[in-house]
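Q: what sequence does this backbone want?
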């Protein structure tokens, strides 16, 4: 089964964007965005702190696409019309601001706000993409400032790496209804609610709860089923999170 759940490993979930520019200069921005999976629940806003750990100012473009699942459960990404959303037309996730200028060793807060009705759970990919300003239109720089920045990093090869976060927006009225079945080495979890649940630190161990496998984290979307099997002498253990409620469970 494909796309029945989200595996929350960063190398699968992060939308990494790399822009290679001819430059021999040592200075370069280097951003970090913290968590690559975020959840909006019981609120309409999310504040993310974006850091620049490099040695050059970071000019960061923020883009948002909605992830939509079809009847075949295949996903596609649809760019959002931020201007329409700001004008009150439709519903979706808005970035404020949509452009960030982050100084060396500095931080800027990016606020993500959902506007419109929240009848069902929705999913968004938010990308933070460092760029080299080419003119004064996007970041409000003068032509001289844009040229000075470009010249500073304009000889040799420099890599600008961007990151993506998956943001899940819960429905306005969340309902949790989780069914856990199976024993020992067989695990089956069904999400009959209307909001994602999280299965974290999932691993199988021997009967003494030792010699465990590497742990994984799963976001199980509404209406989906998660199944795993291991060798007969092993048992699954994990933490189940439903909104504000957490339980440490095993499959004995």
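A:
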């Amino acid at each position: 089964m494909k796309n029945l759940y989200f595996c929350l490993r960063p190398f699968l979930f992060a939308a990494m964007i790399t822009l290679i520019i001819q430059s021999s200069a040592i200075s370069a921005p280097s951003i970090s965005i913290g968590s690559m999976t975020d959840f909006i629940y019981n609120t309409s806003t999310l504040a993310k702190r974006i850091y620049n750990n490099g040695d050059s100012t970071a000019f960061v473009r923020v883009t948002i696409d909605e992830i939509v699942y079809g009847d075949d459960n295949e996903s596609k990404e649809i760019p959002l019309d931020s201007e329409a959303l700001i004008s009150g037309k439709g519903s979706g996730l808005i970035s404020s601001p949509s452009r960030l200028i982050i100084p060396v060793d500095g931080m800027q807060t990016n606020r993500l706000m959902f506007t419109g009705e929240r009848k069902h759970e929705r999913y968004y990919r938010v990308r933070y993409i460092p760029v080299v300003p080419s003119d004064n239109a996007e970041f409000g720089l003068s032509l001289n400032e844009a040229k000075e920045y470009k010249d500073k990093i304009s000889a040799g090869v420099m890599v600008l790496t961007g990151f993506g976060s998956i943001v899940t927006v819960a429905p306005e009225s969340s309902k949790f209804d989780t069914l856990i079945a199976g024993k020992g080495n067989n695990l089956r979890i069904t999400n009959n609610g209307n909001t994602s649940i999280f299965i974290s630190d999932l691993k199988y161990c021997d009967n003494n709860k030792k010699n465990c496998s590497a742990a994984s984290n799963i976001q199980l979307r509404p209406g989906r089923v998660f199944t795993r099997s291991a060798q007969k002498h092993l048992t699954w253990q994990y933490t189940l999170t439903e909104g504000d409620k957490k339980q440490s469970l095993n499959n004995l």
